[in-house]
Write a structure and sequence with these properties.
Blueprint lengths: L8 E6 L7 H15 L3 E6 L5 H13 L4 H20 L2 H28 L4 H8 L1 H16 L3 E5 L18 H14 L4 E6 L2 E3 L5 E3 L5 H12 L3 E6 L20 E3 H9 L10 H7 L3 E5 L8 E4 L11 E14 L9 H11 L4 E6 L5 E6 L4 H11 L1 H6 L6 E12 L9 H11 L4 E6 L5 E7 L3 H13 L4 E8 L3 H21 L1 E9 L4 E3 L12
Parallel strand pairs: 1-2, 1-7, 2-4, 3-4, 7-9, 8-10, 17-18
Antiparallel strand pairs: 5-6, 9-10, 11-13, 11-14, 12-13, 14-16, 15-16, 18-19
Helix pairs in contact: 2-3, 2-4, 3-4, 3-6, 4-6, 7-8, 8-10, 11-12, 14-15
The structure holds adenosine-5'-diphosphate, aspartic acid and magnesium ion (MG).
Length: 533
Amino acid sequence: MNDLKPIPRKILKFGGTSLANADRMRQVAEIVRAAASDHAVTVVVSAMGGVTNHLVEATRAAADRDDSWREALIGLRARHLEVAEGLAEGPEYEALESGIVQSLGDLEDLLHGIFLLRECSPRTRDSVLSFGERLSAPLVAACLRGAGLDARAVDARGLLVTDDAFGRATLQSDASHRAIREYHARTEPGEVPVVTGFIAATLRGETTTLGRGGSDFTASIFGEALDAQVIELWTDVSGVMSADPRLVEDAFPLPRISYDELMELSHFGARVVHPPSVHPARRRGIPLAIRNTLDPTAPGTLIQSDSVDNPYPVRGISSIHRVDLLRLEGDGMVGVPGIAMRLFGCLARAGVSIILISQASSEHSICWAISPDDTAAAQKAVEGEFELELGLGRVDPLIIDRGQSVIAVVGEGMRERPGLASRLFGGLARAGINVRAVAQGSSELNISLVIAGDDEVRALRAIHSTFFAPTARRVRLVLLGTGKVGSELLEQTRSLIPKLLSERDIDLRWVAIANSRRLLTGAQGINLDQWQD
Ligand code: ADP
Ligand code: ASP
Ligand code: MG
Protein backbone atom coordinates (compact mmCIF):
# COMPACT_ATOMS: atom_id res chain seq x y z
CA MET A 1 0.00 0.00 0.00
CA ASN A 2 3.06 2.20 0.17
CA ASP A 3 2.54 3.44 -3.35
CA LEU A 4 -0.63 5.22 -2.15
CA LYS A 5 1.52 7.80 -0.39
CA PRO A 6 0.07 11.26 -1.18
CA ILE A 7 1.88 13.30 -3.80
CA PRO A 8 3.83 16.11 -2.12
CA ARG A 9 2.15 19.49 -2.32
CA LYS A 10 3.58 22.82 -3.39
CA ILE A 11 2.05 26.16 -2.54
CA LEU A 12 2.61 28.71 -5.32
CA LYS A 13 1.80 32.32 -4.49
CA PHE A 14 1.76 34.97 -7.19
CA GLY A 15 2.09 38.65 -6.24
CA GLY A 16 0.43 41.59 -7.95
CA THR A 17 3.27 42.21 -10.38
CA SER A 18 2.99 38.61 -11.59
CA LEU A 19 -0.67 39.29 -12.41
CA ALA A 20 -0.42 42.64 -14.17
CA ASN A 21 -2.28 41.59 -17.34
CA ALA A 22 -3.46 38.61 -19.41
CA ASP A 23 0.02 37.88 -20.79
CA ARG A 24 1.55 37.75 -17.34
CA MET A 25 -1.25 35.46 -16.19
CA ARG A 26 -0.43 33.10 -19.04
CA GLN A 27 3.18 33.00 -17.82
CA VAL A 28 1.81 32.15 -14.39
CA ALA A 29 -0.21 29.32 -15.94
CA GLU A 30 2.96 27.86 -17.46
CA ILE A 31 4.68 27.92 -14.08
CA VAL A 32 1.71 26.25 -12.40
CA ARG A 33 1.49 23.64 -15.14
CA ALA A 34 5.14 22.72 -14.71
CA ALA A 35 4.68 22.39 -10.94
CA ALA A 36 1.47 20.37 -11.32
CA SER A 37 3.19 17.80 -13.52
CA ASP A 38 4.74 16.13 -10.47
CA HIS A 39 3.12 17.80 -7.44
CA ALA A 40 -0.24 18.54 -5.95
CA VAL A 41 -0.55 22.33 -6.19
CA THR A 42 -2.43 25.05 -4.33
CA VAL A 43 -2.18 28.53 -5.83
CA VAL A 44 -2.56 31.71 -3.77
CA VAL A 45 -3.05 35.02 -5.56
CA SER A 46 -2.76 38.71 -4.73
CA ALA A 47 -4.87 41.37 -6.32
CA MET A 48 -3.69 42.42 -9.79
CA GLY A 49 -0.75 44.83 -9.57
CA GLY A 50 -1.68 48.22 -8.13
CA VAL A 51 -5.33 47.31 -7.46
CA THR A 52 -5.09 47.30 -3.64
CA ASN A 53 -3.49 50.75 -3.78
CA HIS A 54 -6.33 51.99 -6.01
CA LEU A 55 -8.85 50.64 -3.50
CA VAL A 56 -7.05 52.39 -0.62
CA GLU A 57 -7.08 55.63 -2.61
CA ALA A 58 -10.76 55.25 -3.61
CA THR A 59 -11.72 54.72 0.04
CA ARG A 60 -9.84 57.83 1.08
CA ALA A 61 -11.44 59.85 -1.73
CA ALA A 62 -14.96 58.68 -0.88
CA ALA A 63 -14.50 59.52 2.81
CA ASP A 64 -13.18 62.97 1.80
CA ARG A 65 -16.19 63.60 -0.43
CA ASP A 66 -13.87 63.58 -3.42
CA ASP A 67 -15.68 62.23 -6.49
CA SER A 68 -12.59 60.59 -7.95
CA TRP A 69 -13.62 57.26 -6.34
CA ARG A 70 -16.12 56.87 -9.18
CA GLU A 71 -13.35 57.08 -11.79
CA ALA A 72 -11.32 54.57 -9.83
CA LEU A 73 -14.26 52.19 -10.04
CA ILE A 74 -14.60 52.65 -13.79
CA GLY A 75 -10.86 52.03 -14.18
CA LEU A 76 -11.04 48.80 -12.16
CA ARG A 77 -13.96 47.56 -14.17
CA ALA A 78 -12.26 48.26 -17.50
CA ARG A 79 -9.02 46.64 -16.39
CA HIS A 80 -10.57 43.41 -15.13
CA LEU A 81 -12.90 43.09 -18.11
CA GLU A 82 -9.98 43.59 -20.48
CA VAL A 83 -8.06 40.76 -18.82
CA ALA A 84 -11.16 38.54 -18.91
CA GLU A 85 -11.44 39.19 -22.64
CA GLY A 86 -7.79 38.37 -23.12
CA LEU A 87 -8.16 35.06 -21.30
CA ALA A 88 -11.50 33.54 -22.13
CA GLU A 89 -14.33 33.44 -24.61
CA GLY A 90 -17.85 32.09 -24.89
CA PRO A 91 -19.57 30.95 -21.71
CA GLU A 92 -16.27 31.09 -19.72
CA TYR A 93 -15.97 34.80 -20.58
CA GLU A 94 -19.62 35.47 -19.79
CA ALA A 95 -19.26 33.89 -16.36
CA LEU A 96 -16.18 36.02 -15.65
CA GLU A 97 -17.90 39.15 -16.91
CA SER A 98 -20.97 38.67 -14.77
CA GLY A 99 -18.77 38.00 -11.72
CA ILE A 100 -16.83 41.22 -12.32
CA VAL A 101 -19.97 43.28 -12.86
CA GLN A 102 -21.55 41.86 -9.72
CA SER A 103 -18.44 42.48 -7.57
CA LEU A 104 -18.03 46.03 -8.81
CA GLY A 105 -21.71 46.71 -8.10
CA ASP A 106 -21.19 45.59 -4.50
CA LEU A 107 -18.02 47.66 -4.27
CA GLU A 108 -19.85 50.71 -5.60
CA ASP A 109 -22.51 50.34 -2.90
CA LEU A 110 -19.81 50.22 -0.22
CA LEU A 111 -17.93 53.25 -1.53
CA HIS A 112 -21.15 55.18 -1.96
CA GLY A 113 -21.97 54.44 1.68
CA ILE A 114 -18.58 55.78 2.74
CA PHE A 115 -19.16 58.85 0.57
CA LEU A 116 -22.52 59.56 2.22
CA LEU A 117 -21.26 58.98 5.76
CA ARG A 118 -17.97 60.80 5.13
CA GLU A 119 -16.13 58.23 7.12
CA CYS A 120 -14.83 54.72 6.81
CA SER A 121 -14.51 52.33 9.72
CA PRO A 122 -11.62 49.82 9.70
CA ARG A 123 -14.24 47.13 9.17
CA THR A 124 -15.66 48.74 6.03
CA ARG A 125 -12.17 49.45 4.79
CA ASP A 126 -11.28 45.75 4.97
CA SER A 127 -14.41 44.94 2.98
CA VAL A 128 -13.37 47.41 0.29
CA LEU A 129 -9.78 46.11 0.16
CA SER A 130 -10.95 42.51 -0.16
CA PHE A 131 -12.26 43.13 -3.66
CA GLY A 132 -8.78 43.10 -5.24
CA GLU A 133 -8.19 39.42 -4.48
CA ARG A 134 -11.86 38.51 -4.99
CA LEU A 135 -11.57 39.87 -8.54
CA SER A 136 -8.19 38.36 -9.40
CA ALA A 137 -8.73 34.74 -8.24
CA PRO A 138 -11.51 33.89 -10.77
CA LEU A 139 -9.40 35.37 -13.58
CA VAL A 140 -6.35 33.31 -12.65
CA ALA A 141 -8.48 30.19 -12.27
CA ALA A 142 -9.95 30.76 -15.76
CA CYS A 143 -6.45 31.25 -17.17
CA LEU A 144 -5.27 27.97 -15.59
CA ARG A 145 -8.30 26.16 -17.01
CA GLY A 146 -7.33 27.61 -20.40
CA ALA A 147 -3.95 25.92 -19.91
CA GLY A 148 -5.65 22.58 -19.33
CA LEU A 149 -5.63 22.52 -15.53
CA ASP A 150 -8.61 21.68 -13.35
CA ALA A 151 -8.53 24.99 -11.49
CA ARG A 152 -11.15 26.48 -9.19
CA ALA A 153 -11.25 29.93 -7.52
CA VAL A 154 -11.56 29.70 -3.73
CA ASP A 155 -12.59 32.60 -1.50
CA ALA A 156 -10.34 32.31 1.56
CA ARG A 157 -13.03 33.94 3.70
CA GLY A 158 -14.67 30.52 3.80
CA LEU A 159 -11.52 28.93 5.26
CA LEU A 160 -9.39 31.41 7.21
CA VAL A 161 -10.81 32.47 10.57
CA THR A 162 -9.43 35.54 12.36
CA ASP A 163 -10.29 37.84 15.24
CA ASP A 164 -11.87 41.20 14.43
CA ALA A 165 -8.71 43.35 14.52
CA PHE A 166 -9.62 44.81 11.15
CA GLY A 167 -6.64 45.82 9.00
CA ARG A 168 -4.25 43.39 10.68
CA ALA A 169 -6.34 40.52 11.94
CA THR A 170 -4.86 37.66 13.95
CA LEU A 171 -5.38 34.16 12.64
CA GLN A 172 -7.14 31.46 14.62
CA SER A 173 -4.83 28.70 13.50
CA ASP A 174 -6.66 25.60 14.62
CA ALA A 175 -10.00 26.45 13.04
CA SER A 176 -8.30 27.71 9.88
CA HIS A 177 -6.08 24.66 9.47
CA ARG A 178 -9.02 22.36 9.96
CA ALA A 179 -11.05 24.15 7.30
CA ILE A 180 -8.12 24.18 4.86
CA ARG A 181 -7.51 20.44 5.32
CA GLU A 182 -11.18 19.59 5.01
CA TYR A 183 -11.46 21.64 1.85
CA HIS A 184 -8.45 19.94 0.27
CA ALA A 185 -9.66 16.50 1.32
CA ARG A 186 -12.73 17.11 -0.84
CA THR A 187 -10.77 18.13 -3.97
CA GLU A 188 -10.26 15.74 -6.86
CA PRO A 189 -6.75 14.50 -7.69
CA GLY A 190 -5.15 17.09 -9.97
CA GLU A 191 -7.55 19.85 -8.94
CA VAL A 192 -5.80 23.19 -8.37
CA PRO A 193 -7.45 25.51 -5.84
CA VAL A 194 -6.76 29.20 -6.63
CA VAL A 195 -7.10 30.91 -3.28
CA THR A 196 -7.56 34.64 -2.62
CA GLY A 197 -4.54 35.86 -0.62
CA PHE A 198 -4.69 38.58 2.04
CA ILE A 199 -8.34 38.16 3.06
CA ALA A 200 -10.08 36.17 5.78
CA ALA A 201 -13.21 36.41 7.94
CA THR A 202 -14.26 36.45 11.58
CA LEU A 203 -16.40 33.67 13.00
CA ARG A 204 -19.37 35.97 12.43
CA GLY A 205 -18.46 36.16 8.75
CA GLU A 206 -17.14 39.74 8.71
CA THR A 207 -14.40 40.29 6.14
CA THR A 208 -10.91 40.92 7.54
CA THR A 209 -7.44 41.41 6.04
CA LEU A 210 -4.04 40.16 7.19
CA GLY A 211 -2.07 43.41 6.73
CA ARG A 212 -0.60 44.88 3.55
CA GLY A 213 1.44 42.34 1.65
CA GLY A 214 -0.49 39.62 3.50
CA SER A 215 -0.91 37.22 0.56
CA ASP A 216 2.51 35.84 1.46
CA PHE A 217 1.08 35.06 4.88
CA THR A 218 -1.91 33.27 3.33
CA ALA A 219 0.48 31.10 1.33
CA SER A 220 2.49 30.28 4.42
CA ILE A 221 -0.65 29.38 6.42
CA PHE A 222 -1.79 27.01 3.66
CA GLY A 223 1.70 25.52 3.56
CA GLU A 224 1.63 24.86 7.28
CA ALA A 225 -1.89 23.41 7.25
CA LEU A 226 -1.16 21.08 4.33
CA ASP A 227 2.40 20.23 5.35
CA ALA A 228 3.61 21.38 1.96
CA GLN A 229 6.99 20.44 0.59
CA VAL A 230 7.79 24.06 -0.29
CA ILE A 231 6.06 27.45 -0.33
CA GLU A 232 7.05 29.37 -3.44
CA LEU A 233 6.48 33.12 -3.51
CA TRP A 234 6.61 34.24 -7.14
CA THR A 235 7.34 37.93 -7.58
CA ASP A 236 9.10 40.39 -9.90
CA VAL A 237 12.68 39.99 -8.65
CA SER A 238 14.97 36.97 -8.69
CA GLY A 239 14.91 36.44 -4.95
CA VAL A 240 15.79 38.29 -1.78
CA MET A 241 18.55 40.62 -2.84
CA SER A 242 21.56 41.87 -0.91
CA ALA A 243 19.81 45.29 -0.84
CA ASP A 244 16.71 46.92 -2.30
CA PRO A 245 17.42 46.73 -6.04
CA ARG A 246 15.59 50.01 -6.61
CA LEU A 247 18.17 51.80 -4.45
CA VAL A 248 21.37 49.83 -4.93
CA GLU A 249 22.25 48.99 -8.50
CA ASP A 250 24.78 46.29 -7.64
CA ALA A 251 22.37 44.36 -5.42
CA PHE A 252 22.36 40.65 -6.25
CA PRO A 253 20.05 37.75 -5.33
CA LEU A 254 21.02 35.70 -2.28
CA PRO A 255 20.85 31.98 -3.13
CA ARG A 256 20.11 30.78 0.43
CA ILE A 257 19.34 32.53 3.69
CA SER A 258 17.95 31.47 7.05
CA TYR A 259 14.46 32.25 8.38
CA ASP A 260 16.13 34.54 10.95
CA GLU A 261 18.01 36.49 8.32
CA LEU A 262 14.84 36.92 6.31
CA MET A 263 12.99 38.17 9.39
CA GLU A 264 15.68 40.74 10.16
CA LEU A 265 15.91 41.93 6.56
CA SER A 266 12.17 42.17 6.04
CA HIS A 267 11.51 43.87 9.38
CA PHE A 268 14.01 46.51 8.43
CA GLY A 269 12.46 47.46 5.17
CA ALA A 270 13.17 44.69 2.65
CA ARG A 271 9.47 44.19 2.04
CA VAL A 272 10.00 41.52 -0.55
CA VAL A 273 8.34 39.16 1.96
CA HIS A 274 5.65 40.09 4.48
CA PRO A 275 7.57 39.43 7.76
CA PRO A 276 4.95 37.36 9.70
CA SER A 277 4.87 34.90 6.78
CA VAL A 278 8.05 33.32 8.10
CA HIS A 279 6.38 31.90 11.24
CA PRO A 280 3.99 29.28 9.81
CA ALA A 281 6.69 28.01 7.44
CA ARG A 282 9.30 27.86 10.18
CA ARG A 283 6.98 26.06 12.60
CA ARG A 284 6.85 23.12 10.21
CA GLY A 285 10.32 23.55 8.77
CA ILE A 286 8.91 24.17 5.28
CA PRO A 287 11.32 26.01 3.01
CA LEU A 288 10.19 29.29 1.47
CA ALA A 289 11.40 29.98 -2.04
CA ILE A 290 11.37 33.41 -3.65
CA ARG A 291 11.15 33.08 -7.43
CA ASN A 292 10.86 35.44 -10.38
CA THR A 293 7.80 35.06 -12.64
CA LEU A 294 9.58 37.04 -15.34
CA ASP A 295 12.65 34.79 -15.19
CA PRO A 296 11.44 31.34 -14.08
CA THR A 297 14.80 29.70 -14.74
CA ALA A 298 16.57 31.93 -12.20
CA PRO A 299 17.17 29.90 -9.03
CA GLY A 300 15.78 32.58 -6.70
CA THR A 301 16.30 32.44 -2.93
CA LEU A 302 15.73 29.42 -0.72
CA ILE A 303 14.93 30.21 2.91
CA GLN A 304 15.45 27.48 5.49
CA SER A 305 16.35 27.13 9.14
CA ASP A 306 20.08 26.91 8.74
CA SER A 307 22.24 29.50 7.17
CA VAL A 308 24.62 28.08 4.62
CA ASP A 309 28.15 28.96 3.71
CA ASN A 310 28.37 32.52 2.68
CA PRO A 311 31.41 34.04 1.07
CA TYR A 312 30.53 37.34 2.78
CA PRO A 313 30.12 37.96 6.52
CA VAL A 314 27.15 40.20 5.80
CA ARG A 315 24.11 38.79 4.08
CA GLY A 316 22.05 41.79 3.22
CA ILE A 317 21.33 45.44 3.97
CA SER A 318 17.94 47.02 4.34
CA SER A 319 16.56 50.33 5.48
CA ILE A 320 13.52 52.01 6.93
CA HIS A 321 12.91 55.31 5.34
CA ARG A 322 11.47 58.10 7.50
CA VAL A 323 11.83 57.50 11.20
CA ASP A 324 12.13 59.99 14.08
CA LEU A 325 14.87 59.63 16.68
CA LEU A 326 13.84 60.66 20.20
CA ARG A 327 16.33 61.24 23.00
CA LEU A 328 15.82 61.56 26.72
CA GLU A 329 18.78 62.73 28.73
CA GLY A 330 19.65 64.38 32.00
CA ASP A 331 21.90 64.21 35.04
CA GLY A 332 19.01 62.83 37.08
CA MET A 333 19.00 59.62 35.02
CA VAL A 334 22.51 58.43 35.92
CA GLY A 335 22.46 55.40 38.20
CA VAL A 336 18.74 55.70 38.90
CA PRO A 337 17.10 52.31 38.43
CA GLY A 338 13.78 52.04 36.69
CA ILE A 339 14.13 54.92 34.22
CA ALA A 340 14.17 52.62 31.18
CA MET A 341 11.25 50.65 32.57
CA ARG A 342 9.18 53.80 33.07
CA LEU A 343 10.15 55.17 29.68
CA PHE A 344 9.32 52.06 27.65
CA GLY A 345 6.32 51.29 29.84
CA CYS A 346 4.74 54.66 29.09
CA LEU A 347 5.50 54.26 25.36
CA ALA A 348 3.93 50.80 25.33
CA ARG A 349 0.79 52.10 27.05
CA ALA A 350 0.57 54.81 24.39
CA GLY A 351 0.70 52.09 21.70
CA VAL A 352 4.04 53.29 20.31
CA SER A 353 6.05 50.57 18.61
CA ILE A 354 9.81 50.99 18.90
CA ILE A 355 12.10 50.25 15.99
CA LEU A 356 15.46 50.55 17.74
CA ILE A 357 16.84 51.49 21.18
CA SER A 358 20.29 52.60 22.21
CA GLN A 359 21.59 53.62 25.61
CA ALA A 360 25.04 54.96 26.40
CA SER A 361 26.68 53.07 29.27
CA SER A 362 26.96 56.35 31.19
CA GLU A 363 23.16 56.06 31.45
CA HIS A 364 23.04 59.79 30.83
CA SER A 365 20.92 59.36 27.73
CA ILE A 366 18.59 56.90 26.03
CA CYS A 367 17.50 57.25 22.44
CA TRP A 368 15.00 55.32 20.37
CA ALA A 369 13.62 55.38 16.85
CA ILE A 370 9.92 55.31 16.02
CA SER A 371 7.63 55.94 13.09
CA PRO A 372 6.85 59.68 12.65
CA ASP A 373 3.16 58.73 12.93
CA ASP A 374 3.83 57.85 16.59
CA THR A 375 5.96 60.87 17.53
CA ALA A 376 3.17 63.08 18.90
CA ALA A 377 1.81 60.25 21.07
CA ALA A 378 5.33 59.37 22.27
CA GLN A 379 6.11 62.96 23.20
CA LYS A 380 2.91 63.30 25.18
CA ALA A 381 3.47 60.02 26.99
CA VAL A 382 7.08 60.77 27.95
CA GLU A 383 6.37 64.33 29.07
CA GLY A 384 3.51 63.04 31.21
CA GLU A 385 5.57 60.24 32.76
CA PHE A 386 8.57 62.45 33.60
CA GLU A 387 6.67 65.62 34.49
CA LEU A 388 8.20 65.77 37.95
CA GLU A 389 11.80 65.22 36.80
CA LEU A 390 11.35 67.72 33.96
CA GLY A 391 10.05 70.30 36.44
CA LEU A 392 13.05 69.75 38.73
CA GLY A 393 15.50 69.89 35.83
CA ARG A 394 16.73 66.34 36.42
CA VAL A 395 15.68 65.37 32.95
CA ASP A 396 16.13 67.71 29.98
CA PRO A 397 13.29 68.43 27.55
CA LEU A 398 12.81 65.60 25.06
CA ILE A 399 14.95 65.97 21.92
CA ILE A 400 13.30 64.96 18.64
CA ASP A 401 15.36 64.52 15.46
CA ARG A 402 12.95 64.19 12.58
CA GLY A 403 13.57 62.84 9.09
CA GLN A 404 16.04 60.07 9.95
CA SER A 405 16.50 56.61 8.45
CA VAL A 406 17.43 53.27 9.98
CA ILE A 407 19.84 51.00 8.15
CA ALA A 408 20.15 47.36 9.16
CA VAL A 409 23.13 45.21 8.24
CA VAL A 410 22.17 41.55 8.59
CA GLY A 411 23.98 38.21 8.47
CA GLU A 412 24.51 35.06 10.51
CA GLY A 413 28.17 35.30 9.44
CA MET A 414 28.62 38.47 11.54
CA ARG A 415 28.58 36.43 14.74
CA GLU A 416 31.93 36.23 16.41
CA ARG A 417 33.66 37.95 13.56
CA PRO A 418 35.74 40.79 14.94
CA GLY A 419 36.62 43.78 12.83
CA LEU A 420 33.28 43.92 11.11
CA ALA A 421 32.08 47.06 12.84
CA SER A 422 35.27 48.88 11.95
CA ARG A 423 34.80 48.00 8.27
CA LEU A 424 31.23 49.18 8.46
CA PHE A 425 32.02 52.52 10.11
CA GLY A 426 35.12 52.95 7.96
CA GLY A 427 32.99 52.60 4.84
CA LEU A 428 30.48 55.14 6.11
CA ALA A 429 33.21 57.58 7.18
CA ARG A 430 34.80 57.45 3.73
CA ALA A 431 31.42 58.37 2.27
CA GLY A 432 31.20 61.28 4.75
CA ILE A 433 28.12 59.90 6.51
CA ASN A 434 27.48 60.73 10.13
CA VAL A 435 25.99 57.97 12.30
CA ARG A 436 23.54 59.23 14.95
CA ALA A 437 22.88 56.03 16.90
CA VAL A 438 23.86 52.38 16.77
CA ALA A 439 22.23 49.25 18.14
CA GLN A 440 23.34 45.64 17.92
CA GLY A 441 21.18 42.79 19.08
CA SER A 442 23.03 40.26 21.24
CA SER A 443 22.28 37.69 18.56
CA GLU A 444 24.85 39.64 16.51
CA LEU A 445 22.62 38.97 13.54
CA ASN A 446 21.91 42.61 12.93
CA ILE A 447 23.67 45.93 13.42
CA SER A 448 21.30 48.87 13.05
CA LEU A 449 22.31 52.48 12.48
CA VAL A 450 20.39 55.73 12.49
CA ILE A 451 21.50 58.30 9.95
CA ALA A 452 19.99 61.44 8.39
CA GLY A 453 17.23 60.51 5.95
CA ASP A 454 19.00 62.39 3.14
CA ASP A 455 22.02 60.10 3.53
CA GLU A 456 20.02 56.86 3.23
CA VAL A 457 20.69 55.91 -0.36
CA ARG A 458 24.35 56.95 -0.19
CA ALA A 459 24.78 54.96 3.00
CA LEU A 460 23.19 51.85 1.50
CA ARG A 461 25.48 52.06 -1.49
CA ALA A 462 28.57 52.74 0.63
CA ILE A 463 27.89 49.76 2.92
CA HIS A 464 27.03 47.56 -0.02
CA SER A 465 30.29 48.31 -1.77
CA THR A 466 32.24 47.91 1.48
CA PHE A 467 31.02 44.38 1.99
CA PHE A 468 30.20 43.19 -1.49
CA ALA A 469 32.83 44.94 -3.58
CA PRO A 470 32.94 42.90 -6.73
CA THR A 471 36.31 41.43 -5.82
CA ALA A 472 35.17 38.25 -7.50
CA ARG A 473 36.17 38.05 -11.11
CA ARG A 474 33.07 37.67 -13.22
CA VAL A 475 33.00 34.99 -15.89
CA ARG A 476 29.87 34.72 -18.03
CA LEU A 477 29.46 31.65 -20.20
CA VAL A 478 27.30 30.81 -23.21
CA LEU A 479 26.79 27.20 -24.29
CA LEU A 480 25.99 26.43 -27.91
CA GLY A 481 24.90 22.84 -28.31
CA THR A 482 23.42 20.69 -25.57
CA GLY A 483 24.48 17.26 -26.80
CA LYS A 484 26.54 14.82 -24.80
CA VAL A 485 29.58 17.08 -24.45
CA GLY A 486 27.57 20.21 -23.70
CA SER A 487 25.41 18.50 -21.07
CA GLU A 488 28.45 16.96 -19.41
CA LEU A 489 30.12 20.37 -19.27
CA LEU A 490 27.06 21.86 -17.56
CA GLU A 491 27.03 18.99 -15.10
CA GLN A 492 30.68 19.49 -14.24
CA THR A 493 30.38 23.24 -13.70
CA ARG A 494 27.38 22.74 -11.42
CA SER A 495 29.47 21.64 -8.45
CA LEU A 496 32.36 23.86 -9.49
CA ILE A 497 30.43 27.15 -9.39
CA PRO A 498 30.01 27.52 -5.57
CA LYS A 499 33.57 26.26 -5.02
CA LEU A 500 35.09 28.75 -7.43
CA LEU A 501 33.26 31.60 -5.73
CA SER A 502 34.19 30.73 -2.17
CA GLU A 503 37.73 29.47 -2.79
CA ARG A 504 38.99 31.37 -5.80
CA ASP A 505 36.79 34.47 -5.91
CA ILE A 506 35.63 33.61 -9.40
CA ASP A 507 31.96 34.23 -10.10
CA LEU A 508 31.10 31.88 -12.93
CA ARG A 509 27.62 31.81 -14.43
CA TRP A 510 25.91 30.39 -17.50
CA VAL A 511 23.86 33.18 -19.05
CA ALA A 512 22.68 31.41 -22.21
CA ILE A 513 22.22 27.81 -23.30
CA ALA A 514 21.17 27.06 -26.86
CA ASN A 515 20.69 24.16 -29.20
CA SER A 516 19.43 24.19 -32.77
CA ARG A 517 15.81 24.55 -31.56
CA ARG A 518 15.79 26.57 -28.37
CA LEU A 519 17.53 29.39 -26.56
CA LEU A 520 17.45 29.73 -22.79
CA THR A 521 18.76 32.92 -21.22
CA GLY A 522 19.07 34.21 -17.65
CA ALA A 523 20.93 37.42 -16.90
CA GLN A 524 21.56 36.38 -13.27
CA GLY A 525 22.74 32.91 -14.26
CA ILE A 526 20.70 29.88 -15.30
CA ASN A 527 19.66 27.38 -12.64
CA LEU A 528 21.54 24.23 -13.62
CA ASP A 529 19.08 22.06 -11.72
CA GLN A 530 16.31 23.01 -14.10
CA TRP A 531 17.76 23.95 -17.46
CA GLN A 532 16.40 20.83 -19.10
CA ASP A 533 12.81 21.70 -18.12
P1 ADP B 1 4.63 41.01 -4.85
O1 ADP B 1 3.60 41.88 -5.47
O2 ADP B 1 5.08 39.93 -5.75
O3 ADP B 1 4.23 40.50 -3.48
P2 ADP B 1 6.26 43.06 -3.63
O4 ADP B 1 6.20 44.37 -4.34
O5 ADP B 1 5.47 42.89 -2.38
O6 ADP B 1 5.94 41.92 -4.70
O7 ADP B 1 7.79 42.72 -3.28
C1 ADP B 1 8.78 42.69 -4.29
C2 ADP B 1 9.55 43.99 -4.33
O8 ADP B 1 10.30 44.16 -3.11
C3 ADP B 1 10.60 44.03 -5.40
O9 ADP B 1 10.05 44.47 -6.63
C4 ADP B 1 11.65 44.98 -4.84
O10 ADP B 1 11.54 46.23 -5.47
C5 ADP B 1 11.31 45.13 -3.37
N1 ADP B 1 12.46 44.90 -2.50
C6 ADP B 1 12.85 45.69 -1.46
N2 ADP B 1 13.94 45.21 -0.87
C7 ADP B 1 14.28 44.07 -1.52
C8 ADP B 1 15.31 43.10 -1.36
N3 ADP B 1 16.25 43.18 -0.42
N4 ADP B 1 15.30 42.05 -2.20
C9 ADP B 1 14.38 41.93 -3.17
N5 ADP B 1 13.38 42.82 -3.37
C10 ADP B 1 13.33 43.87 -2.56
N1 ASP C 1 -3.07 42.89 -2.32
C1 ASP C 1 -2.55 43.05 -0.97
C2 ASP C 1 -1.62 44.25 -0.91
O1 ASP C 1 -1.33 44.87 -1.91
C3 ASP C 1 -1.87 41.83 -0.46
C4 ASP C 1 -0.64 41.39 -1.23
O2 ASP C 1 -0.41 41.81 -2.35
O3 ASP C 1 0.10 40.57 -0.68
O4 ASP C 1 -1.20 44.62 0.16
MG1 MG D 1 4.22 41.40 -1.57
